[in-house]
Amino acid sequence: GWARAVRGLLLDVSGVLYDSGADGGVPIAGSVEAVRRIKASGLKLRFCTNETQATRENFVKKLRGMGFDICVSEVTAPAPAACHILKERGLRPHLLVHDDLVPEFAEVDKTNPNCVVLGDAAENFTYANLNEAFRVLIGMEKPVLISLGRGRYYKETDGLKLDVGAYMKALEYACDVQAEVVGKPSERFFESALAEMGVPAEQAIMIGDDIVNDVGGAQRCGMRALQVRTGKYRPSDENHPDVKPDAYVNNLAEAVDIILQQL
Amino acid sequence: GWARAVRGLLLDVSGVLYDSGADGGVPIAGSVEAVRRIKASGLKLRFCTNETQATRENFVKKLRGMGFDICVSEVTAPAPAACHILKERGLRPHLLVHDDLVPEFAEVDKTNPNCVVLGDAAENFTYANLNEAFRVLIGMEKPVLISLGRGRYYKETDGLKLDVGAYMKALEYACDVQAEVVGKPSERFFESALAEMGVPAEQAIMIGDDIVNDVGGAQRCGMRALQVRTGKYRPSDENHPDVKPDAYVNNLAEAVDIILQQL
């Protein structure tokens, strides 16, 4: 049923292709081969990530180092999507992002800021930097806050870390504004990925480990969506009150097996 | 009308008695004398503050230095109220508060924490400390977050600063919990102040500069409440959609003039 009439696949990256770890990450068993098989099949493919701790160049470099057949032009990520919005609306950002993401905004005018762009800034989330971003926002007649994702937290080898969504909420509350979220699960973000692939939502399947941001977001755009039982998947996801994937698969390799059988 | 049948006064401190500044603060004209006149009149008096950057001892010391007749036993503040709740419920806090507030929790068992107490930690709001407080919370079966206030921001001589409420929202979102707020505008906090004064709500008047936390909070407890046109007062407060003070006064001295005339 769920694998019928598919022309394109959207893959989440962290937790689907690889698990992040102290050394940068290790591929999930079968995923390197699964990406090759998708490409060989003639299906369209797009990598759809909320990664904001590195430029796409460095992100792709890391994945190629693990053996994945991937290039920059195949990646949909929040920072380039934000750049597009900034240009479209004549916005000049004050950036509160990870140092390694800054080059993505190289072409953007950042003088005399009229908005704040917030990413997972990690060590850059200092008291001083948060107050500074806040002052830029509260100084505007109508504050514009663009957030690269709305994640609550994530796991690193040295423990759980607050994600960008928590800091977004802090600034939203202090300034009494609502952030515009770029990245999954925003509809616009999935639609860009579909457009870049040239496949309509009805013929695309999203494969991800995040029940809300990957599965729920893609389904709201009219796509089918699978949850893999790797990465941040937890058994309790299968009882999620709002989101029900079109199917569960043990991992990407199994999803690709089933999809390719139906072609 | 509004000054009839009064037996006790609750005074906010910052913005009513003094304005904070680089040198610690300066008394608002007429306020030192106004406090003396209240005490001479036989009215009951209670200082009701959300201050969490100093122990009551140091807070009172600063005010006495400005000439105010005030002592520790007359002050209702969030930290001692929190200590009371902690003891009552057998809670052992992980503290994310200002260094100068820590002594207020000297008597509290802090081993093996089963809740987080959040204050305006200022420079202690580091990335590492926020992640640590988050991990303590997310590690509990049912996270308990106690927040010493819910302010959005405040002004210091070197600019606006995010207040405890912003960080409360970040942790609330990340852990999917609702904080218990100690301090104004919590009903329980005002009720403690009334009990300590021994005056029922109907015979008490709150005087503050904060339309929501002072005026709105006190009125919800059945008190009358005045807004002074000092401190953080802004003309736009007079069009507040939800809260309407029983009266506006230019400053504490004017409020005391009117109240004492009616006695």
From TrEMBL, chains A, B:
Subcellular location: Cytoplasm; Nucleus
Reactions it catalyzes: diphosphate + H2O = 2 phosphate + H(+)
Keywords, alphabetical: Cytoplasm, Hydrolase, Magnesium, Metal-binding, Nucleus
Primary localization class, coarse: cytoplasm
Any GO MF annotation of the entry: metal ion binding
Cofactor: Mg(2+)
EC number: 3.6.1.1
Cellular component GO terms held in the UniProt record: cytosol; nucleus
InterPro entries found in the cross-reference section: HAD-like_sf, HAD-SF_hydro_IIA, HAD_sf, LHPP/HDHD2
PANTHER family: 4-NITROPHENYLPHOSPHATASE-RELATED, PHOSPHOLYSINE PHOSPHOHISTIDINE INORGANIC PYROPHOSPHATE PHOSPHATASE
The family this protein is said to belong to: Belongs to the HAD-like hydrolase superfamily.
Function: Phosphatase that hydrolyzes imidodiphosphate, 3-phosphohistidine and 6-phospholysine. Has broad substrate specificity and can also hydrolyze inorganic diphosphate, but with lower efficiency.
Protein name stated in the entry: Phospholysine phosphohistidine inorganic pyrophosphate phosphatase
